[in-house]
Specification:
The complex is a heterodimer of chains A (1069) and B (149). Chain A is of the alpha+beta class and 1069 residues long. Chain A is built from 37 helices and 44 strands. Chain A is elongated, with a radius of gyration of 43 Å. The chains are: A alpha+beta (1069), B mainly beta (149).
């Protein structure tokens, strides 16, 4: 085999380059079918051909053979003797695949068995030929030159083929030493230039003649023979080849001899294959060293080393061959093609840089501050430009990887019996080489998914009323400084409910969680680890480790992945990637004396908890500290604790960093034993006033600088707050790899050099989470849920309508008693006495405003007036309010006392505003007492005829009071219970008195379901009817309730309906 | 590598010698990239205990190893004589923090004797050999072994 690494490397690179385009070309050829695009076929043909040409020269016999057969088939396609149907293209594709494989493992290529491909290719060739020519396909002939030398083993078929095309055949003998080496040419270049004027059928180095010649004359020739077919006439050839005419032989028919007849004598002269070299080297070295010297090493060796050293060269020969694996395995991918223009720019910039440096030095030496300043500015500019230009050298068009998906889709869809068109858009988009290489696998996975799970079979598609052929669009584009890759298919889409079902079945989430999730959230289940919806594991889609790996990969690159799907219509998967990995924007933080960079892609927001709120905001769930952020529980990781660094704080007095001895994040003087600044334990009751001498009056722990700085970060399934000492600016940092000794410190993604020349470590957010054994979002969700349930037990949720009265007064009313919201023209309002009404739906709607019932602002008259229409006692009335009017769901954490006043049942905080809860009933009662005469009568009657007693279990004091008031207003007697357990105890004691049970569902200790179950399963109590009060009635809840025996449901705060129901249950009017 | 040279016929070798934890050690000068006194070292929490930290050496991140700790001797005492010996190993620059630098010693490769299994409490595997001069005994460090993590 050829030993010149450089030439070999060049050959491999070029060949792989050729192969790069072949796939898509072949697929296009396949698509075109009989309607052959000659240019394309020629392209592929030439590629196969160049590979073959080089392989002959390098002694890569297997590659040569394979490419030769590929070429044959392509030749027939070119002459339209063969129609490239799908099967044939498949064979070709496989052949080229194998070829690529061989090229990538060049050192073992000669030992590979490619007979499968060759037989398949030969089959195609033969089948398309007339009988009499079939034999030529595999027939090999030798060409005998005038001087008796032989060019062995040429395919007769080839020669015939070219002759039939009207081409002349030549055997051109270059001399590797004189014609190529001395002229500073490269054999590959020579072959390439020959390709432009004709076709190389075969090439070899005639080692056989080398020995003979060098014995005779001084400077030896190494004939490099090329069998060449061209339309050029023999007379013209010397100008073309630029060598002496005597080395150009026109091939005539009588020079051709069948190989079979001369096989035995020719064998030793023929190009020895690798094994043969190994066999023959040893014996020949001893007797005649010269031929062996040239037989294997590169031409350079021959020229530079005088003959006497030959022995030592051949001695070194062996180890070199063994080393070959190492030498060649330097993968071709490690080189990069760079636009020459770009290189020139770089050179220019380098020149500029040197110039500016000189100016700078001059300026400094002559203490000329003006010159120094100028040149430093220049250097600044040049550096930026240089940086950009160097970046550009790393940029590669995304087409390099997108193109191969055509093949992936084609093969897969054939395998799965689907019809799929792949449309690729935005091939010119450029991405950093490293990113490009790393997104290959994730993208392949996604495409495979689309083909396998996304697109339906033609039959299924017809049923859905879609065309037989599915469509996958692969689109790359720039957006906002990022590269976006979108994979959309028009397949069946993701079924959120099936995903949710599967997620529940796998225990990834609970049913309850699923209930409250949006479809989009459910779809994102497929990104979770260990999730695969494929009904059966197919060869195509892998083994259920899938999307999560994709997510991890993409995120490892600083990218994001997003899903969007409409069941039945298709799925869009969007990947956003940074342009480059080398420079990343990062948030600089510090812990202790060191700075740490948090990549911006991981950063969601920065959070600063003022010192005096730390205690309230930081909660403990189990052992873990959490912070409540917009209703969500966020686990906290203390970076100093994670890394084992001493915390510091900025001493407000001296402005110095001092070490912080707090051990607990929420520790704000809660300990009995405090330490003073010197670390001495001080007996303390935990009260500031006890230590006036040691402490400044304003304790540091309450000082502004003692605030807690949290970087809210997320990575993959993790989201958490990283507690750091200080937060600094966001900076663009250059990522530098760290040494091998630090590789096992998984907390860092690398290091960077800060402006002051010091090194800062870059944190690996995902690994930090794993180190802390932080559970992923789903688990955190669970933790959060548990905590929320705890909270919810104490706090009920309700849908409220919020509105304003005037500019500054905020109000809310239960949404369920609201009929409508109207906007009316003020001019249509008619004052009647001290009342206002408006003509409304054929009747008069009485209008009120809050200032009529209590001490609130009067509304300013406006052109239009917003009116909330309530229905009370089957009569409508309108409350005039100030917009915005908004409906939202809030946790009822009601303060009943502070702002209590007529028609206001309490106050709560909604969206940072103190909001008053309007008691519509009370309001109506104040305004229209006559409406309630009926009730008063009923209540009075009931009081006379014997009281009905209700057992009412409700944990929220607010609701308990509210509902109890309703009931008592209507003449019922109420026994209250704070939770189910208390209700149960009360029931046991007073079962004889109680007529009806009304219970809340979610309560601590014992919930409404359990209470009902006990009541209904005990014959002593089972006669009692149970009405459940709920704030949010979901189908699942109602079903669950029915199972345990709840008789009816009513929504909290819907007074009228509830009372009606109670009366109905008790057979009252 | 120095190894191959020691095996052959006698060749003059140069060793840069230095003190670490009281012991006098040497490194073949060909292995040394530079010797400096940059101590703007960034600590790397969670790293092995012998890692002093990382350093910016003209745009490269260099890991600094406390050679004393690495060899199992006393940690390097911080002082004005401290130096980082930057060596090149497996395409990477690594700094060895030593107590102080001593002379460059020229020796015949013949004079280097195989290392005993234990030199002053340091495992023999860390040494290529021992060089005896008139006054002192110099342990020649086997850099690759020392830098194994």
């Amino acid at each position: 085999m050829f030993e010149d690494d450089e030439t070999l490397q060049m050959y491999i690179e070029e060949s792989l380059d050729h192969l790069g385009d072949i796939e898509s070309d072949l697929l296009t050829i396949e698509e075109a079918g009989a309607d052959i695009d000659l240019d394309l076929v020629n392209n592929v043909f030439r590629a196969a051909h160049s590979i073959k040409g080089g392989a002959g020269f390098m002694g890569l016999t297997t590659i040569k053979e394979l490419s030769h057969h590929l070429e044959n088939v392509l030749g027939l396609v070119r002459t339209k003797e063969l129609i490239p149907d799908s099967n044939r293209i498949s064979v070709l594709l496989k052949g080229f695949d194998e070829l690529e494989n061989l090229l990538k493992n060049i050192e073992t290529s000669n030992d590979q068995d490619v007979t499968v491909h060759i037989t398949a290719l030969e089959g195609i060739t033969k089948a398309s030929l007339p009988e009499e020519r079939q034999g030529t396909v595999s027939e090999m002939v030798d060409i005998v030159l005038e001087d008796g030398r032989i060019f062995p083993q040429v395919s007769l078929f080839d020669m015939e083929q070219y002759k039939s095309e009207g081409k002349n055949l030549f055997l051109v003998e270059y001399d590797l030493i004189n014609d190529i080496q001395r002229k500073d040419k490269n054999p590959i270049e020579v072959l390439n230039s020959l390709q432009k004027t004709g076709t190389i059928i075969d090439s070899r180095i005639d080692f056989d003649s080398v020995g003979l010649l060098s014995e005779r004359s001084g400077p030896g020739r190494i004939p490099f023979q090329v069998l060449f077919a061209s339309i050029i006439e023999y007379d013209m050839t010397d100008t073309l080849f630029d060598i002496d005419k005597k080395y150009i032989h026109a091939i005539s028919d009588d020079m051709v001899r069948t190989a079979s007849s001369s096989q035995s004598e020719v064998e030793p002269a023929a190009m020895p294959s690798k094994e043969q070299v190994a066999e023959t080297t040893a014996p020949v070295t001893a007797s005649a060293p010269e031929p062996v010297v040239v037989a294997t090493p590169a031409p350079e060796v021959v020229v530079s080393k005088p003959v006497p050293v030959a022995k030592s060269i051949s001695a070194k020969e062996k180890p070199k061959q063994q080393d070959k694996g190492v030498v060649i395995s330097a993968k071709p991918q490690t080189s990069l093609r760079v636009n020459v223009g770009l290189l020139d720019t770089l050179m220019n910039l380098a020149g500029e840089l040197v110039l500016s440096r000189n100016q700078l030095l001059q300026g400094i030496n002559s203490s000329n501050s003006k010159a120094t300043e100028l040149s430093s500015q220049r250097i600044d500019m040049i550096t930026s430009e240089l940086q950009e230009a160097i970046m550009r050298t790393r940029m590669q068009p995304i087409a390099n990887i997108l193109n191969k998906f055509t093949r992936v889709v084609r093969d897969l869809s054939q395998q799965l019996g689907k019809q799929i068109d792949l449309v690729i858009e935005g091939k010119d988009v450029e991405l950093d080489k490293t990113i490009l290489e790393s997104i290959n696998d994730p993208l392949t996975h996604l495409i495979r998914n689309s083909v396998d799970h996304g697109i339906e079979t033609p039959a299924e598609r017809r049923q859905m009323g879609k065309g037989d052929t599915g469509k996958i669009i692969l689109r790359a584009f720039h957006d906002a400084g990022q590269v976006n890759i979108v994979i959309s298919d028009d397949g069946k889409g993701l079924d959120p409910d099936r995903l949710a079902e599967s997620a529940v079945a796998k225990g990834l989430v609970t049913e309850q969680q699923v209930d409250e999730m949006t479809d989009k959230q459910k779809m994102e289940f497929i990104l979770l680890p260990g999730f695969s919806t494929a009904k059966e594991v197919t060869d195509v889609s892998g083994r259920g480790v899938g999307m999560d790996v994709v997510v991890t990969n993409i995120e490892g690159l600083g990218g994001i992945i997003e899903l969007d799907s409409t069941p039945g219509e298709g799925t869009d998967i969007q990947i956003k990637l940074p342009l480059t990995l080398a420079i990343i924007p990062s948030q600089i933080t510090s812990v202790g004396k060191e700075r740490y960079a948090v990549p911006q892609v991981n950063l969601n927001e920065l959070l600063r908890i003022p010192a005096n709120q730390v205690k309230e905001k930081i909660e403990k769930v189990g052992d873990a500290a959490v912070v409540r952020l917009r209703g969500e529980l966020l686990p906290l990781l203390d970076l100093s604790e994670m890394l084992g660094i001493e915390k510091t704080y900025l001493d407000p007095g001296s402005d110095e960093d001092k070490s912080d001895r707090r051990t607990n994040m929420a520790d704000r003087r809660s300990k009995q034993h405090l330490f003073d600044e010197d670390g001495n334990a001080i007996e303390s009751s935990g009260n500031d006033e006890d230590q006036p001498s040691q402490r400044e009056p304003e304790d540091r722990r309450y000082h502004a600088s003692s605030a807690m700085n949290i970087a809210v970060v997320s990575a993959g399934a993790f989201k958490y707050g990283l507690v750091v000492d200080q937060l600094y600016d966001s900076e663009e940092i250059v990522v530098k790899p760290v040494g091998r000794h630090l590789k096992k410190c998984s907390a860092y993604a690398g290091a960077t050099i800060m402006g002051d020349g010091k090194v800062a470590l870059i944190l690996d957010i995902s690994n930090l989470a794993q180190m802390a054994k932080l559970s992923s979002v789903s688990d955190v969700g669970q933790v959060a849920r548990m905590a929320e349930e705890e909270a919810a037990a104490a706090m009920d949720k309700a849908a409220m309508l919020t509105f304003k009265n005037g500019d500054s007064e905020y109000f809310a009313a239960p949404l369920n008693i609201v009929e409508r919201i109207e906007r009316i023209q003020t001019s249509t309002i008619e004052p009647i006495g001290d009342r206002k009404v408006v003509q409304y739906r054929g009747g008069a709607l009485p209008l009120f405003e809050l200032s009529q019932v209590s001490d609130f602002q009067r509304l300013e008259p406006k052109e239009q007036q917003e009116v909330i229409v309530f229905k009370v006692k089957d009569r409508e009335l309108g409350l005039m309010v100030t917009p915005p009017v908004d409906a939202l769901e809030v946790s009822l954490d009601v303060d009943e006392s502070t702002l209590k006043q007529p028609a206001i049942s309490g106050s709560m905080i909604i969206n940072k505003h103190t909001t008053l809860l309007v008691d519509i009933f009370e309001m109506v009662k104040i305004l229209n007492p006559q409406w309630f005469k009926e009730e008063a009568k009923v209540a009075a009657e009931m009081a006379e005829s014997g009281e009905k007693i209700l057992l009412f279990a409700e944990d929220s004091a607010f609701f308990r009071n509210q509902v109890k008031t309703f009931m008592e207003d209507d003449g019922f007697k109420v026994i209250e219970a704070e939770d189910g357990l208390i209700a149960w105890e009360l029931l046991k004691e007073r079962v004889d008195e109680i007529d009806l049970v009304v219970t809340d569902l979610e309560m601590p200790n014992m919930d409404g379901f359990e209470l009902t179950k006990r009541i209904k399963s005990d014959s002593k109590y089972s006669h009692l009817q149970v009405i459940a009060l709920t704030s949010l009635a979901s189908e699942a809840h109602i079903e669950k309730g029915r199972k345990v025996g709840i008789d009816d449901y009513e929504i909290k705060l819907d007074r009228e309906k509830l009372m009606k129901l109670i009366r109905h249950k008790l057979d009252l009017k | 590598m120095a190894d191959s040279m020691i095996e052959g016929s006698s060749v003059d070798l140069e060793f840069s010698t230095f003190y670490v934890g009281g012991a006098l050690c040497g490194i073949n000068i060909l292995n040394i990239q530079e010797i400096n006194k940059h101590f703007e070292i960034t600590k790397v929490p969670q790293a092995s205990e012998y890692i002093e930290g990382i350093l910016n050496l003209r745009g490269r991140i260099v890991t600094i190893i406390d050679l004393g700790k690495k060899l199992g001797l006393d940690p390097v005492t911080k002082g004005k004589d401290n130096r980082n010996i930057i060596v090149n190993s497996e395409d990477e620059h690594i700094g060895l923090l030593v107590d102080s630098i001593s002379d460059v010693v020229i020796a015949k490769s013949d004079n280097i004797e195989p290392a005993p299994s234990n030199i002053g409490g340091v495992k023999g595997k860390f040494f290529q050999g021992v060089l005896k001069t008139e006054k002192k005994l110099i342990g020649i460090l086997a850099i690759d072994e020392v830098l194994k993590d």
